[in-house]
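Take a careful look at the protein record below. Let me know whether the structure tokens fit the sequence:
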Amino acid sequence: MISRKIFSQRLNRLRQAKNISHEKLANELGLTRATVSHWENGLRLPSLEIATALADFFDVSLDYLVGRSDDPRRH
């Protein structure tokens, strides 16, 4: 099960570490700024397809992004 809280915290940290705005991330994924904001505020979760795209974008494992692992590395 995906933890909304962990997902939102990790997404926020990853985005800030890359120093990109909600809008830039949204544009990279073809989405709206509000969508990214909703994820980071824990109001919504992305589809599996988008979660995978986020993991690829930030070069972390999907398990890390959704809270199933504390190891961000891909295996």
In short: Residues 38 and 67 are 18 Å apart (CA to CA). The chain is about 60% helix and 0% strand. The two ends are 20 Å apart (CA to CA).
